[in-house]
Structure formats: C-alpha cells, structure tokens
Design brief:
Elements lengths: L17 H5 L5 H29 L15 H5 L12 H19 L6 H29 L4 H24 L9 H9 L1 H19 L1 H7 L1
Helix pairs in contact: 2-4, 2-6, 5-6, 6-8
C-alpha cells in the first residue's frame, strides 16, 4: 500500500542519534555518565578539600572519619592515597568532570566518533582497574574504608560496564563473530551483571570487617 502524499512522515526522536536508537539502553549511558560523573566529581572534590585541610593541620579529623573502619583519615595518610605522587582525588576531579561533560553532550543527541569512544574506554578501564586495586589495598593492607572513596567505587563500576557494553554493541571494540551472541546476552541482562558485581564487593567488605560489624549488632 503506497503512503498517501498528505500523510506525514514520522520524525526521529529529538535528542537520540541513530547510534543510540540501535543500543539496548539508548538513554541510560548518557544519564549514567552525567549523574555518575557528578557524584564522582562531588566525592573526589570533597576528598581534595579534606586532604588540603589535613595538610594544613595534621591534627584535623576529616568529616568522613566516623569510626575505626569508616575512616578517611586513616586512608589519606597512606602511600596508596598518592599512588602517582599526588593525591588520588585529583585524578577523580579531572576524570569525572570529563565524564559529566560527555554525558551532557550525549543527552543533546550529539554523535561521537569511534576514536572518542575508544579513548573513553581506555579511561574507564584504567579507572575500574585502579579502583579495584584501591579496594584491595583498603581491605587487606590499610584495613580501613574511606566513605567518599566508596562513592567513587560505586560510580566507576557501572560506568566501566556500560561504556564497555556500548562499545561492544556498536562495534567500536572488535568482537569475533562467534561472540556476538554473548554481547547480545550481556546487553539483555546488563543490570544483573552490575548487581552481582556490587554484591561481590559488598560481600568482601562485610567479611573483611565482620569482627567489627558484629560488635554493633
């Protein structure tokens, strides 16, 4: 049946690119980068302010030092808090500001080239590896948790996961033909994987500090 000349042609949704229309979660990644970036930036910025206050006054007690386990001060005074020779939060301030900007750009419906997505992939991969190194150091070397750092952990995991899924789904990362079904499966159950990841990290924290948590029950 031919379309009537008077019948209007449906316009594409405003603010969604063809690339986003083909994605399994067309708007989720943009919002995640925007809101997750803001949360990570806020946590990193606050840690930077606390670090400056601690440098000015070694006797200063950070606002996130709540008890022997949840103690930013115990973490800030370790070499791990300056893994690259400067306070780690400075990486977060720069990185999360960039992610927030990218999220806002995506929300406007702008498309980004492949090289940009690969650069973002490199950034979130570095971030999630560094975060898990910090998780290990906090649990098994330092023996204390930084609440603001944990906000960064919580943000970095889904950012890495959804950027990676997006790049796999859009072909920015090469995927063997036989693995395409796996990518589709992961995309269909994307929230399940993130939930399991969070549960695993939470379980590690709970087990590591169970002797302290049990005294509070």
């Amino acid at each position: 049946m031919q379309r009537s000349q008077a019948e209007p042609i449906a316009a594409p949704a405003v603010g969604i690119t063809p690339e986003q229309e083909q994605a399994p979660f067309p708007r989720l990644l943009a919002w995640l980068l925007t809101l997750g970036g803001l949360a990570g930036f806020a946590a990193a910025f606050t840690l930077s302010v606390e670090k400056i206050a601690l440098l000015k006054n070694p006797a200063y007690v950070p606002s996130c030092s709540l008890n022997p386990v949840l103690s930013c001060g115990s973490v800030m005074n370790t070499p791990q808090a300056e893994a690259f020779g400067f306070p780690n939060p400075l990486l977060g301030v720069a990185g999360f500001a960039a992610m927030t900007t990218i999220g806002v750009v995506l929300l406007t419906g702008a498309g980004l080239p492949r090289w940009f997505w690969l650069g973002l992939q490199a950034g979130v991969t570095f971030g999630v590896v560094f975060v898990h190194w910090l998780i290990y150091q906090s649990l098994y070397v330092i023996g204390a948790l930084c609440p603001y750092c944990m906000v960064v952990w919580a943000v970095m995991i889904p950012l890495f996961w959804y950027v990676t899924l997006h790049n796999l789904h859009q072909g920015h990362l090469p995927v063997p033909a036989g693995a395409r079904r796996v990518v589709v499966l992961l995309s269909g159950y994307h929230a399940v994987a993130v939930t399991v990841w969070f549960v695993a990290v939470t379980a590690l924290i709970g087990v590591r500090f169970w002797s302290y948590w049990s005294t509070l029950l």
